Amino acid sequence: MNSSIDSKNNLLKPHIPRHFIAVLVACLVMLVLCIIASLVFGSRAISFNELIAGLFHQNVDSYGANVVRQRVARTVFSLFCGAALGISGALMQAVTRNPIADPSILGVNTGASLFVVGGIAFLNISTATQYIWLALAGAMITAVFVFGIGSMGRGGATPLKLVLAGAATSAALSSLVIAIMIPRSYVMDQFRFWQVGSVGAANWSSITTFIPFLIVGILLGILSIAALNALALGDEVAKGLGVRTGVLRLTAALAAVLLCGATTALAGPIGFVGLLATHVIRLILGPDMRYVVPMSAFAGAIILTISDVCGRVLGSPGELEVGVVTAFIGAPILIIIARKAKVRGL
């Protein structure tokens, strides 16, 4: 009992977890290796000379050099999306005190998908900015709805009730997406590739559109980090420490929805990245959100980028979308986490 109290009190003390520097260095090394792998490997392998020419010699117009330049935008986009999903997962788990909270599990991705397909069908949207604003609206409305349903009844928003509310909402919204698409073949053609989740269509224009939402989401998340440690001790204790829990949840949830909504708008509903990244970091460094949130960004970027590389290599000469790869890896890990955690709160 005392050890449990001591471990929770440590969340409020400014200390550096053991092995933090080693973990940070390892993440940076893995990030560099992932970037190199993303530039070199794919349906066509790139030689060292082609890599150098594509990166540093813009006057070289060979096929290999042009492939490298295309992969640079794809790599940057996958890094940004992975970091956004990692932070979003960490914030969602902290706000809901749910160890298996994730945008895909709580139905947020599906809400974004519904608004995007509705925009394609009824508003004829086509630009990245239009996709983002509609996806954000759908993600926010769905997040509020799921949390409201999960908060009903005795005990408030328990982890189990949130997961059940998210699963039910996701199923209902998926049915609406299908109902909109079936009679409209042009919508289905435009939506089906986006729905799987892929970073293959990345370009510098979409990256430029994505960056402001990424920056705002990260800043809001940073503002919430210290208070989230107090929230882990329970609402009553957090209030006693001067934390305005309602404002905190709203700020952190807004940051999470901004990050996952903008990512979903441009890359499709990629699932399990936030779940995997946050659990890996928490397993290594402990529950302190001052380290979990920023390191989840590194872990998310690594997971998504290496998943994209695996999809390209395994699907050669075509490619396997990254959303399929992350689902294939994440689904069994989710089952393991759920069995061990027994759907307890954080």
From TrEMBL:
Chain ranges passing through the membrane: 20-41, 72-92, 104-125, 131-150, 162-182, 202-229, 265-285, 292-314, 320-338
One matching Pfam family: FecCD
InterPro entries for this protein: ABC_BtuC-like, ABC_transptr_permease_BtuC
Primary location: membrane
GO function term, MF aspect, one: transmembrane transporter activity
Family: Belongs to the binding-protein-dependent transport system permease family. FecCD subfamily.
Keywords: Cell membrane, Membrane, Transmembrane, Transmembrane helix, Transport
Keyword ATP-binding found: no
GO term, biological process aspect, one: siderophore-iron import into cell
Cellular-component GO terms for this entry: plasma membrane
Keyword presence, Membrane: yes
Annotated localization: Cell membrane
Protein name (Swiss-Prot/TrEMBL): Iron ABC transporter permease
Topology term for the membrane: Multi-pass membrane protein
Gene3D superfamilies, per the entry: ABC transporter involved in vitamin B12 uptake, BtuC (1.10.3470.10)
